[in-house]
Amino acid sequence: MRSFRFTNLLATKGMARQNILRNCARTDLVSSTVERLRRWLKPICRFSRYFRPGPTTAAHLRVGRRGEQIAVGFLRKSGYKLLFRNFRAKCGGEIDLVCRDREAKVLVFVEVKTRTTNLFGDPHEAVTLRQQDSIIRAAKEWLRLLDDADIPYRFDIVEVVMEPRRAVRLIRNAFQIREDIYF
């Protein structure tokens, strides 16, 4: 004759098995549903990359981003090492690319100007004194973060013109820090 304790243990084990089987069945149901959804959505996802919902990037921002990518490739071929993209300083300045010129062993702050055509002038003409001040402010913040005042540096501009034929031009030492700027 079985004892009460033994019967209770068997009943508990049986209940545990049933719960495990139920959980496994749910897991199987979920995994099979997920697999079906993946198979069903796969062709749609491939097609949906052409029609992305939501806010789209403005055309001038896409041109600017593409120009930065082209400029990075050009600078790498010219012997520059990219250190940082789109550095924003707390004091309000912004630098497109921070690089190191391996040949001259100089830290270079690069402003990239991209235009679709040259009809409205060369791209470097769009770097105004106000924008130069903003770049200089960010460069001073970068130098402060490095904690070394004796690092040689310069400011370059990369012009990218997309049409009629893609042209990339590097202007070394495009501007200097003026003496009348106080930060």
Describe the structure.
The chain is α+β, with helices and mostly antiparallel strands. It folds into 2 domains: 1-54; 59-175, 3-Layer(aba) Sandwich (Trna Endonuclease, Chain: A, domain 1). The protein is built from 3 helices and 5 strands, in the order H-H-E-E-E-H-E-E. It has helices at 4-48, 59-77, 129-146, and strands spanning 80-88, 94-101, 106-115, 153-161, 167-175. A 5-stranded mixed beta sheet has the order 1-2-3-4-5, with helices on both faces. The protein is extended and about 70 Å long. It starts with a helix and ends in an 8-residue tail after the last strand.
What can be said about this structure in brief?
With 183 residues, this protein is α+β, with helices and mostly antiparallel strands. The chain has helices at residues 4-48, 59-77, 129-146, and strands spanning 80-88, 94-101, 106-115, 153-161, 167-175. It has 2 domains: 1-54; 59-175, Trna Endonuclease, Chain: A, domain 1.
